[in-house]
Amino acid sequence: MVPIAPPRWDRTGPSGHATAGFRAVRRPMGHRRGTARERQQVIAATEEPRTLSGWRFSVAPMMDWTDRHCRAFHRSLSARARLYTEMVTTGAVLHGPRERLLGFAEIEHPVAVQLGGSDPADLARAARIAADLGYDEVNLNVGCPSDRVQEGRFGACLMREPALVGDCVAAMKAAVSVPVTVKCRIGVDDQDPEAALDTLADAVVAAGVDGLIVHARKAWLQGLSPKENRDVPPLDYGRAARLKRRLPGLPIAVNGGLRDLDSARARLAEVDGVMVGRAAYTEPALLLGVDPDLFGVPAPAPDAFAAVAAFEPYIAACLARGERLHAVTRHMLGLFNGRPGARAFRRHLSTHGMRPEADLATLREAVALVSRAAPEARAA
Q: How far apart are CA 209 and CA 46, in angstroms?
């Protein structure tokens, strides 16, 4: 077990981590789809299988959750999972506080940034900034259904504008050498998922996309809240599997409703990768099984207790910079779910961890409340 090193905010340029298996296609700015080269891209996606070793398992981008501290904590549980930032809009990247929005620690690799936007030129500039900061992948959000996102003309509403999404991908591909991917739904509102997903996939493949993450639900832009859109529309994993059979050369990952590693493993029989969201956040101990079960290598720590101990140097460095303990430990509250004392652990951190003087001793006190006996079985 290796302690998690304190964060270094190193911004020396592209890291080159975990990009093997992607095909990088540089394209001139303003290049339009429909050329002979673009048709060859579509043919390649139907004929040439590509691997995505770094994409086999990833933790979904989640607003207000997957900040830099969350990602560093998740890295203490899995060395192989690909981690994603919260969605960051192009306007925020271009005009906002970049260190606060895009800063990350070297221990987070492989780590991807998710961008929200629909202007190809702005996305190209934002992608170049992210790549120069060292991100291993740039992902375009074509799946978020919130009203605020729709008003900005990005997210899931772009499922209705596949040609524009293709232009956005082409612009980003021209700007960076790291992989450019898209996260989408299978359709929105009354769209036919068969036609909608195929049309979007063909557009981004023609633009040179390196991979597609499919949230296997439609999004209802009118009538359902973002929370309801995560649960109410029925899951259709078969739609993603059919797309993979049609485009075997396009790396495809599936997202939505994956609650444990057994369900993730079942999907890996059909597609190249799985992306887990809420389950990884609310039950982070499941990440301890990712490396041994899905990659065939040992986990960074033998159990959750050892993972906390290895994570202490990172927390200490954050405290030394003046950050509050709760900013980090709020992401750890579900770590011991299923063990006797888990509730006391959460309560202690939620109350004492909020205090300005809270420190590593506060965390250790919380951990001491948890039984080291084997965790109780939990219903799926």
A: 14
Q: In what helix (H) or strand (E) does residue 219 lie, and over which residues does it extend? A: none
Give the tokens for residue 337: 């779910």
List, in sequence order, every beta strand (DSSP E) within 92-250. Answer: 111-116, 137-142, 180-185, 211-215
Radius of gyration of the chain (CA): 20
What is the enclosing helix (H) or strand (E) of 274?
strand 273-276
Q: Using an 8 Å Cβ cutoff, are 34 and 57 in contact?
A: no
How many C-beta atoms surround the C-beta of residue 188 within 10 A?
26
* CA nearest neighbour of 335 among 313, 308, 354, 356: 308
Residues 182-205 pLDDT 10s: 999 999 989 999 999 999 999 999
Residues 160 and 145: beta-carbon distance below 8 Å: no
Q: Which whole-number Å values give the CA distances from 322 to 21, 37, 166, 350, 357, in the listed order?
A: 40, 52, 43, 19, 11
Q: What is the pLDDT of residues 41-57, one digit of tens each?
A: 554 555 555 555 568 99
- Residue 144 annotated among the catalytic residues of the structure: yes
Residue for token digits 């509050």? 324
Which of 70, 144, 157, 168 is catalytic? The answer is 144
The pTM of the full predicted model, rounded to 2 decimals, is 0.86
